What does this fold into?
Amino acid sequence: MARINLLPWREARREELKRAFLSILGLVAAAAVILVMLGDRFVNSQIDGQRARNNYISSNISELDKQVEEIKDLQRKRNQLIERMRVIQELQGNRPIIVRVLDQLVRTVPDGVFYTNVSARGVDLRVNGVAESNNRVSSLMRRLDASDWLKDPNLDAVRAAPTYGDQANTFDLSVKVDLPAKDNESGD
It folds into this structure.
């Protein structure tokens, strides 16, 4: 005999498949939510890590900026000190020159000529003085021109000076300092 099932097995099967489908759908949805949450946490942790690195870099940049400012300040002070040292060395180097120029001024003075004022500005010397006669002034000019350290004497004014005597004249002249080459200085 043949067995015939008259129970509504198709509906039961359909209900069973529907429940299995819904349970699998629920599991997939739960897994998707969990994956989304894990992905969100992972991305947030990556973002937090990058922010921490950015903050670290920013703090180091600010420290380096402070150090750069200190270095610039130190370089500025160094340049000022170097400039001061250069000025001092230049003054130290000019000491012998000043002595030699004054020595040349003394050596070139002929008898009957007296200096009343000598002033210097750079390589230009201004000399004021009194001479017994005009011939003495011209002798002074020739001697200044013949000097190794002085050049281009220029007589600015000659005036009669009755307070110094009958024939006395006051004079104003300018002369330039001729600095010899360094090789000549060492040989003197």
Q: What stands out?
A: The longest helix spans residues 9-107.
